[in-house]
């Protein structure tokens, strides 16, 4: 079996300027724990996981609605 046979074709993604709350909602709605971070044209420049959100936003008491995905 080839990867392309089981991979999704229309993948949901976020941009570096999206906030963490929007990323978490997309993960919830898509029932996933990982989203690619894309630039224009859907070019992947990184990724965000549910673990990133828990450890880097929640644990550090950053407000999800105003913390950008591209914030380190």
Topology, please?
Layout: H1 3-6, H2 20-30, E1 34-39, E2 43-49, H3 50-58
Antiparallel strand pairs: 1-2
Protein described:
The chain has 72 residues and is an alpha+beta fold. It has helices spanning 3-6, 20-30, 50-58; strands at residues 34-39, 43-49. Strands 1-2 form a two-stranded antiparallel sheet. The longest helix has 11 residues, at 20-30. The protein is globular, with a radius of gyration of 13 Å. The termini are far apart. The relative contact order is 0.23.
Summarize the structure.
The protein is an alpha+beta fold. The longest helix has 11 residues.
Largest sheet: 2 strands, antiparallel
Rounded Rg: 13 Å
Output the structural class: alpha+beta
Please count the beta strands (DSSP E, at least 2 residues each).
2
User: Looking across the biggest beta sheet, what order are the strands in?
Assistant: 1-2
């Amino acid at each position: 079996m080839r990867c392309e046979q089981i991979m999704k074709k229309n993948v949901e993604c976020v941009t570096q300027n999206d906030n963490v709350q929007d990323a978490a909602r997309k993960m919830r709605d898509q029932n996933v724990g990982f989203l690619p971070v894309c630039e224009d044209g859907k070019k992947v420049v990184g990724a965000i996981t549910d673990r990133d959100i828990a450890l880097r936003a929640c644990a550090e008491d950053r407000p999800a609605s105003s913390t950008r995905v591209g914030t380190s």
